[in-house]
Amino acid sequence: MTETQVHSRTIVEWAADKPEAVVLSGDLTGSVEIAEFKRTYPERFFSLGMAEQNMLSWAGGMAREGLVPYLHTFSVFLVRRPYDQLAMSVAYPNLPVKLVGFLPGIMTPGGVTHQAIEDINLMRGLPNMTVLETGDAADIESVLDVAHAVDGPVYIRMLRGAVPRLFEGPMELDKIRHLTNGADITIFSSGICTEEAIRARRVLEDAGISVTHRHVTTHKPFRDPAIADAIRAAGKAVITIENHNVIGGLGTAVAERMAEIGAGVPLVRIGIDDAFGQGASARYLMEKNGFTAGRIVERVAEHLGVRIAVPDDIDEFDVSVSFGADQLEAL
User: Strands of 211-216's sheet, edge to edge?
Assistant: First the structure.
């Protein structure tokens, strides 16, 4: 089941009793689901145009005056373009600026200029920064509460348009979501990859592979004791699946924990294999980079040295693209 415009609805309802929360737009208001916020709270909406470095500096100043700015644009324009202003105007003074980044990884057809494939790596490396990622409607509905409660800067990898509802209950800071328990392999997945991992996991389980599966919503901090427990549960391999470069993201965070606890099983990192993206549909790029359900099954089977028949319909999905009426361009 998919739902549409979840963030648009959520932020309007959520902000009703939070006058300190203001929204800043980087000239992509219709594309990042804040047009309704602009209409509902015009005095709390600020359009900064295509000047993201300036927007980060503005946000730092607003936060010093007691406001809590929520910056909205594509992930790449919140991280890569204004990184120095982000570090010096926001992270260094540890200000409560919240960065809501859309179309992370290869989710945009805009090619290299629009694809944030290294954002988790860069944000994990910033002191004082908290890094969150949504994977379904329940995550989206609760991520604002999580971010608002953090006394400092937060970066959110946000979903838009049609999104699945996979979980019950709210996201919690530094708590992984428990999906299944098993003894052969442990899967850690995040963002859009979790829905694919769920499809893949069912095929693996039908083939007799026992799977522990955890959904990661907090990339930093990454201290939940359940992470180490899930690693120790893996008898044959730990698998990470992410819409990000395999260097510096979820796979790296899990590798660090495995080293810290002395885990003695192999790690298989599935994601963008240290290469830039290209202009194409998100589905094509997911297949190319190996994190559709069918490709996940193939990769796990190859690693375990077993044969698994991949059902023809494993990668069936809703090909319709649902956007709000306020979105004026394809990106």
Answer: 177-180, 211-216, 185-190, 237-245, 267-272
